[in-house]
Amino acid sequence: MRIISILIFFTVLAFSNPLFACLWDSDTIADEIKNRRPIINAIVGNVAQYPDKYYEMRLERVTQEIVEGKKTPALFDNAGVAANKLKDYDSAIKWMEKKEIVLTEMGKKAKKDDWYRLYANWGTFYVHKFMIQPDKSDLSALKKSRAYIQKAIAIQDLVVRENCTGPTRGRFQGEP
C-alpha cells in the first residue's frame, strides 16, 4: 500500500510540475525509438541528464554546422535544447526564433512535425525561463509558453485528424 501511495504522489507531482515539460531533440527521438526509458521513469521525471560538457560540445558542433550552411530544422532543435540544458534560456529561445525563420523560408517544404517541435520547445523554454525568474508576478514568459504549447497541441491534433482512417475518421471535436 505504501508503494502505491508513493507512486500516486510522484505521478501527481510529475504531471503538475511544468519543469517536467517535454523537450525535443535528436536524443529524445533516439531514446523513444530504442524504448530505453521505462514508463515509471517518465512518470517520476527521472530522465537522462548528460554532463554540461556534453551540451557545450553539442552546441559548438551544431553552431559550426549552421555557420557552414547546413540549416536543417533538427539542428536548431539540438542547439536550443543544449542551451536549455545549460540553463541559458534566452539563448534557447533565440535558437527557436532562428528556426522559425528557417521554417518560414522553407515554405511548404517545412514539415508539420518541424513546426510542432518548434512550438513545443519554445513553450518549454519559456516555462523554464519563468521558473528561474525572481519576479513571479511577471507572467509574460508563462503566457508565451502557454501560447506556444497550445500551437504545438493544435498541430498534433491536425496531424491526428489528417492521418485518421477507418470508422473513426472525422469523429473529432463533436464531428459525426
Rg over CA atoms, rounded to whole Å, is 18 Å
Q: DSSP strand (E) fraction?
A: under 5%
The class by helix and strand makeup works out as mainly alpha
CATH class: Mainly Alpha
Number of domains: 1
For the biggest sheet, the summary is: none
Distance between the termini: 44 Å
| Helix content bin | 55-70%
Show unreliable segments: 12-20, 168-176
Question: Under CATH, the topology is which?
Answer: Serine Threonine Protein Phosphatase 5, Tetratricopeptide repeat
What letter string, H or E per element, gives the SSE order?
Answer: HHHHHHHH
Number of helices: 8
Let me know the average pLDDT.
81
Name the CATH architecture. Answer: Alpha Horseshoe
Strands, count: 0
- What does the overall shape look like? globular
Please describe what this structure looks like.
- This protein has helices spanning 2-16, 26-34, 39-44, 52-67, 73-85, 89-106, 112-132, 140-163.
- The chain has 176 residues and is mainly α.
- The longest helix is centred in the C-terminal third of the chain and has 24 residues, at 140-163.
Features:
0% strand; 176 residues; mainly alpha; Serine Threonine Protein Phosphatase 5, Tetratricopeptide repeat
Topology at a glance:
Elements: H1 2-16, H2 26-34, H3 39-44, H4 52-67, H5 73-85, H6 89-106, H7 112-132, H8 140-163
Helix pairs in contact: 4-5, 5-6, 5-7, 6-7, 7-8
Describe, in short, the structure shown.
With 176 residues, the chain is mainly alpha-helical.
